[in-house]
Design brief:
CATH topology: MetI-like fold
Strand content: under 5%
CATH class: Mainly Alpha
Number of helices: 8
CATH architecture: Orthogonal Bundle
CATH superfamily: MetI-like
Order of helices and strands: HHHHHHHH
Radius of gyration: 21 Å
Largest sheet: none
């Protein structure tokens, strides 16, 4: 459903498509950049929760200290909040990336299946299954599953350990 509505919005008669055409960029469907925009939009919910948790975990004290040192809100944000929230940004980026790697519906709807331009692994697996090339589909799916597992394992292993007593 989301892919269909993104296709309509980014197409030549949609608001995004009209905007990109008026800027001389053409339309986004069936292009690499269309895939990027659609994937970001589709995976945005996977980014929100880790970022929210990161910002909430900062607490009030660092902000109060920055205020007592007469830091402007913008300076506080860039000098205090963003560095303290860095682990949340890393987690959000990894989760969003891992989620997008296996996406099929939005990718097929926006990117199509243009060899060398918008063909992605999830669509290639579908093509193998459709052609009854199950061994090739198994191999590619196993690689994708292993890759996603390793990305999430690396994120888990590298996450900061809570301080004792918390």
């Amino acid at each position: 459903m989301l892919g269909f509505y993104l296709l309509l919005a980014m197409g030549p008669h949609g608001p995004v498509g009209q905007l990109t055409q008026s800027l001389g960029l053409g339309t986004l469907p069936f292009t690499f950049w269309g895939l990027v925009v659609a994937s970001v939009f589709y995976s945005l919910p996977f980014m929100v929760q880790p970022l929210q948790n990161a910002f909430e975990s900062i607490g009030e004290r660092p902000l109060e200290v920055a205020a007592t040192l007469r830091a402007s809100p913008l300076d506080t944000f860039f000098s205090v909040v963003l560095p303290l929230a860095k682990p949340g940004f890393i987690t959000a980026g990894i989760l969003t990336f891992a989620h997008t790697v296996g996406e099929f519906g939005v990718v097929l709807m926006i990117g199509g299946n243009i060899p060398g331009i918008t063909r992605v692994a999830s669509v290639q697996i579908y093509d193998h299954v459709e052609a009854m090339e199950y061994a090739d589909a198994h191999r590619l799916a196993a690689v994708m599953l292993s890759f996603s597992f390793l990305v999430l394992l690396a994120m888990y292993v590298r996450r900061p350990k809570p301080a004792k007593g918390n």
